[in-house]
Prior knowledge:
- It is found in: Cytoplasm.
- Pathway: Amino-acid biosynthesis; L-histidine biosynthesis; L-histidine from 5-phospho-alpha-D-ribose 1-diphosphate: step 6/9.
- Its EC number is 4.2.1.19.
- One of its GO terms (cellular component) is cytoplasm.
- By secondary structure, the chain is α+β, with helices and mostly antiparallel strands.
- It has one domain (3-178): Imidazole glycerol phosphate dehydratase, domain 1 (Ribosomal Protein S5, domain 2), CATH 3.30.230.
- It is built from four helices and ten strands, in the order βββαβαβββββαβα.
- A hairpin with a 2-residue loop joins strand 8 and strand 9.
- Helix 1 (34-47) packs parallel to helix 4 and helix 2 (64-82) runs parallel beside helix 3.
- The two termini are 20 Å apart.
Amino acid sequence: MRKANIKRMTKETTIEVLLNLDEQFPSEIDTGIGFFDHMLTLFAKHGRFGLKVKAVGDLDVDCHHTVEDTGIVIGECFKQALGDKAQIERYGNAIVPMDETLAQVTIDLSGRSYLVFNADLENQRLGNFETEIVEDFFQAVAFSAEMNLHANVIYGRNTHHKIEALFKAWARAMRQAVEINPEIKGVNSTKGVI
Length: 194
């Protein structure tokens, strides 16, 4: 079973994540940031991942450390759960509508870290969630998971819809990328390693 359970403690945050790539169970998400909890819950649902997240951070400062550090740990969990990446599809792509918004996320579990992020998030705050942190979250995930992640809002008006469409597209792209394909011998690379 491909799963990981990682706890990371700093002077700013304590983050624990349990990720199961092959068994979906009701997600348990508690970061102290309502909008972020909503995004991670729908990520687990639309990616069909088992996900538990418990994050305690310095929310009296702002939510940046909690969101970014959660991204680091989620990325580390994907990297650990994927192991040697034998027989995984490696690539994933999803385009997701959310009312007036259309978002696309494309993944390569390449072993190389890179983020391309194109989204105009005009509303700076949704509840106690600062929307500029969305890019920092995806960068943390991409770099700790060692993957290429291209996240693009193609068009839209509502900031909530834009971010939600990105998280749903990320979920669906990740599900494609981590799928096991028995026709792939070893890893999906001519190098023989990812």
